[in-house]
Specification:
Elements lengths: L1 E5 L4 H17 L4 E5 L2 H6 L7 E4 L2 E5 L5 H8 L2
Parallel strand pairs: 1-2
Antiparallel strand pairs: 1-3, 3-4
Helix pairs in contact: 1-3
């Protein structure tokens, strides 16, 4: 599974990265975590508000940091 955190590196972006990592670890999912900070790449994905969570190329959340249960739901197939 490929998890991407889109954002400029702000505190909310870091919080989302930590929460996504913890959720994937709790679920026992094998994943690659990538932080995308290039605003051009972020906009190319259709995201206008950060932070955003992208799972396997699909934007799952943007402009907020979902709670742990919501992130777990987004990571499950």
């Amino acid at each position: 599974m490929r998890i991407q955190i889109l954002g400029t590196g702000c505190p909310k972006c870091e919080k989302l990265a930590e929460a996504a990592k913890a959720a994937a670890d709790d679920l026992g999912i094998a994943y690659d975590l990538e932080k995308v900070t290039d605003i051009t790449k972020i906009m190319a994905m259709g995201v206008m508000m950060t932070p955003a969570l992208v799972v396997d190329g699909q934007v799952k959340a943007a402009g907020k940091v979902p709670d742990a249960d919501a992130i777990k739901a987004m990571l499950q197939p």
